Amino acid sequence: MSSQTIPNGLMQRAYLTPNRVAVETSQTSLTFQELHKRVQKVAQQLSFNGVKQDDTIALYMKNRVEFIEILHAVSYIGARLLLVNTRLTNEEINYQLTDANVSLLIADETFLMREFQSSITQLTLPALKSSPEAETDFQKTWNLEETFTIMYTSGTTGHPKGVLQTYGNHWWSSVGSALNLGLNEKDCWLIAVPLFHISGLSILMRSVFYGMKIILEERFEARAVNEAIENKEVTIISVVTSMLSNMLDELGERKYPHTFRCMLLGGGPAPLTILEACVNKEIPVYQTYGMTETSSQFVTLSPEDSLRKLGSAGKPLFPCAMKIVDEKGNETSEAGEIIVKGPNVTKGYLNKPEATEKALQQGWFYTGDIGKVDEEGFLYVLDRRSDLIISGGENVYPAEIENVLLKHPAVKEAGVTGVGDEKWGQVPAACIVVNEDVSDEELSLHIQQFLAKYKLPKYFVRVEELPRTASNKIIRRKLSSFIQKRS
Ligand code: ATP
Ligand code: MG
């Protein structure tokens, strides 16, 4: 069977609509043609530095135009790119560089001082940019089954795993997103999420497939982002909950212009309070569910359902299928594990045949997340399977309790986990970061207004901060040590 190919994304885009703006930053603006020219040069400079077809090189870089140039240059050579989360420790980065057998690491000049794996050749951006150019055989087509990018999961469940993302995964992810959100020639997607996450990378891929302008922010800053939406005709932005809540605070009484059509909210659970605040301010918020392994969104709430189904992550994108299964793998209408199938799902984890075999069964990817589908087919993501608490035979979802805790004005952050209990097997316990003093009694009364008694945490432990991954997700399995230490 011959594999399917499409033209190289950026080359084709530069041919189709050369003069459209591809990317704008606070410093520069490039058309697709200009970007293509720069990428050709960078590809030749990478070749000079020994990068060949099928090599894996790593990129350790903040959000900047050169990130985009290097990403595409790697595809012009036919190599693979490992995107490194810049917030990780040296030890975590070394693990990835070794695991992925990286031959060359390209880093921002600001990160020069870090000691990465000594056996790996390191090149700073200025060194790359001043390298001579070597003759290079550009790859004019993309084989959809070939791996293009490698990205490690955030590691809430243990060691991060290297996810293989193919050209086809990115292509289909972009197609699926456009079929749901629609595509408009005036679209402009603002990136204030890291490019080394699938949330950011997927926007770069959409930009070339759609011929769409992106505005790239070096980092998230609520004021700058709100101003860009108000004054720069941004139509879509991808956010996580903490970004959205800062944006709402900064926005105050102002409203976004009607040209702004989509606030894509994903990456983790979204408290209802935030979604309701968006409805009140007429912000077109779209909840979405996805992961590194599905090359970004997999399930998204369509515009017409966003108000009616507040709190739901929606239905799968057009090319994708989803089921909820019980412990035995049988489809169920109750809460169960979310399994997904589709052309944007990874072909597996790098060097982890066992983890791959466990996650991918008969074409279905087992997400490790628990969800429930309502009678109309809308998904509600409940929690991670590994964080589920079983108390006296009842399933208790930490996220549900955290959501209720967050409704209390004194609670700034909340993390819930299960602790051993003689009578019930396990009971929930909460770690909280508070804004102001609040008694356990008051918190208990607050929770009992919303939740059944067996969901009431046995302990409330005040902590300075919650343990989080480099992607800012709570590592619930680490909460139990706080609870054991409680005074
Ligand atoms: P690891 O797999 O190493 O533990 P991770 O799963 O946090 O890391 P990512 O791929 O970055 O790494 O995150 C995807 C996960 O984020 C999903 O599997 C899910 O648990 C959570 N998530 C994403 N979107 C939502 C959502 N809308 N509601 C609830 N949880 C979500
Ligand atoms: Mg995961």
TrEMBL record:
Pathway: Quinol/quinone metabolism; menaquinone biosynthesis; Quinol/quinone metabolism; 1,4-dihydroxy-2-naphthoate biosynthesis; 1,4-dihydroxy-2-naphthoate from chorismate: step 5/7
Boundaries of every AMP-binding enzyme C-terminal domain copy: 400-473
Pfam short name (any one): AMP-binding
AMP-dependent synthetase/ligase domain location: 12-350
Source species, domain of life: Bacteria
EC number: 6.2.1.26
Enzymatic reactions: 2-succinylbenzoate + ATP + CoA = 2-succinylbenzoyl-CoA + AMP + diphosphate
UniProt entry tagged with the keyword Repeat: no
Annotated SUPFAM superfamilies: Acetyl-CoA synthetase-like (SSF56801)
Matching NCBIfam families: menE (TIGR01923), PRK03640.1 (NF002966)
Family: Belongs to the ATP-dependent AMP-binding enzyme family. MenE subfamily.
The name this protein goes by in its record: 2-succinylbenzoate--CoA ligase
Gene: menE
